[in-house]
Amino acid sequence: MTTHYLACDLGAESGRLMAGTLDDGKLALEEIHRFPNTPIRAGDSLHWNVPQLFHELKAGLAKAATFGVRFSSFGCDTWGVDYLLFDPREELMPPAFHYRDARARRGVEAAYKKATWETIFAETGIQFMPFNTLFQLATEPRERLERAQHLLLVADGLNYLLTGVAKAEESLASTSQLYNPRTRSWADRLIEALGLPRRIFPPIVPSGTKLGPLRPEIARETGLTNLEVIATCSHDTAAAIAAVPSTSSTHWAYLSSGTWSLLGVALPVPIINETCRELNFTNEIGFGGSVRLLKNIVGLWVVQECRREWAREGREYDYAALAELAAAAPPFVSLVNLTDPRFVAPGDMPKKVADYCAETSQPAPVNPGATIRCVLESLALLYRRTLRQVERITGSRIQRLHIVGGGSKNALLNRFTANAAQIPVVVGPAEATAAGNLLIQAITLGHLPSLASARDVVRESLPIQTLAPEAKEDWDAAYERFERLESSTR
User: Fold this and answer.
1) Which residues are catalytic?
2) What's domain 3-236's architecture?
3) Closest CA to 269 of 252, 283, 248, 254
4) What pLDDT digit, counting tens, does each position of 57-79 carry?
5) Whole-model pTM above 0.85?
């Protein structure tokens, strides 16, 4: 039987509506509609343009209606952390704040006046990031929260606009630092401590929950009738991990590579202890109630910001050109600690890299190729350190790393990662997030029996490559330098 599904995969830079066709154990993907996700800057504040994003989503659904096939369902995935507020008239309450808005850091101070970091981590098992939902909400005016009827993270909010059903999908809720992975419920102790109105937090539902059909007016506007909206894994990383083409249940790690790098392992239960807290790992929820023990690392964001800065100077490079320049640059001239807070904020990223090198008595990169080589080598070495930390927390040796997501198209970084980690690296699929979203829909509707069968489909359908590690001595020496560099800058 041939079945068809729709997925909205919305990222921090762009979104797209994807069609998925499942036929004879194989999944075919087709992009229907792509659109930019351009934040709004208002003075010193940064917001998401949610009305425009919803307009583009409906435009994509209208295009899908012209395909002449029956789509069984639709699912939406987005980044975590950010939220939307809706008033009692079911209307969006602007602004929808961007996680890079400066207010979040004020929220850290405000939250710590009401709960210690140790208490927050013990309740949630979530790593510290200053833009976590908990810290953002600590800056919200009380009157705005009191006026709200629903607080929904972004994908859940889009589902609400489509269906009128206000639910919090579990994988997405778990990113908020207001969810308790032990009780599988909202962290009421923290909600009460912060003085947040409990009534605005919607019921939590597991990944793969049917929400219902489109609102009648949306169905008329798009031309799609009888379309079931499913809360798939609404967090994009959780959806991507569902599409990891692993054949075993243990001894492998995943790297969801993109603007952010999310590196970790899948576990049956959370690990919430002092070591996990000190190493700043997180316990998020995946499909089937699994736990994603991972660390969120600044990823290709640094490359993206370098490219933007050079474009502002009139030097335009696409990512392929930057990779060629980096490959031709001399290896291991300088290394940077990408966990330094300077690399998280937007700004003149090439200068930040050069300044860091100068501060640590290393040669500053002399051109774009040297800059990108420095960043990619440093990122690969950071992956190696993070893998060693995973092994320390779990007590289990990682034997294979799966790289999925858009960043897996960066062949140079993939090769550096295999060499740095000195384990086989399985690359692909690049479309893991959309594939995971679509396949979870298929499982929910009974078109596939299990997650294992979905991963079989991925292996049969999408491009995958295995890289063997090389140049062990060179990368071991670089790692020693990298670790000394980290120690000297603490």
Assistant:
1) 236
2) 2-Layer Sandwich (3.30)
3) 283
4) 999 999 999 999 999 999 999 99
5) yes
